[in-house]
Amino acid sequence: MTAETSQTLDRGLKVLKLLADTDHGLTVTELSQRLGVNRTVVYRLLATLEQHALVRRDLGGRARVGLGVLRLGRQMHPLVREAALPALRSLAEDVGATAHLTLVDGAETLAVAVAEPTWTDFHVAYRPGFRQPLDRGAAGQAILAARRHATGDPGYTVTDGEPDTGACGAAAPLLGVTGIEGSVGVVMLADRVPERVGPRVVEAAREVAEALR
Questions:
Q1: Burial call 23-55: b when 16+ CB within 10 Å, e when fewer
Q2: What is the pTM of this model?
């Protein structure tokens, strides 16, 4: 810690990061051990975070990330969109298909940024705000593949007939971006995804990840 930083804020952010990395929550004792501070400090941190709905505690006393974090995340979408659009536009122009950045929102995927090619006669209409179940479509399946390969690179995923019959898609997950779970992909009017598109989508996903770090 330097003279210009706040130790309390630093600890509060560490609490949020620890809670975000677990599905089952953490007790005050567990947080105390991981932070290296006494339980009284943890109680105060949790009480403050609870006031802002950033943390909630269940009946068993385990602390979990609160809904306030989701609201903050939604407010970040415009910034994420701005950072991702250059890579998405380049991808759309290169492969002649609609490119999109999709993030996880609960059990669904949510398209937060879309770029359409300017030179094609026809392309798939795909708008920001489009949702579908996480296990449907290339975007969600790429995210699920990244979860299954937590320590490696799952490459890209291709689908056909999703989200619409006569369309196909390819997507690659965002890797190495703290606090963001998503994918970059394309959807096109074709029977199958051309071989060159998959690697190009992976490249675009890496470009977007770099822009978001």
A1: eebbebeebbeebebeeebbeebbeebeeeebb
A2: 0.70
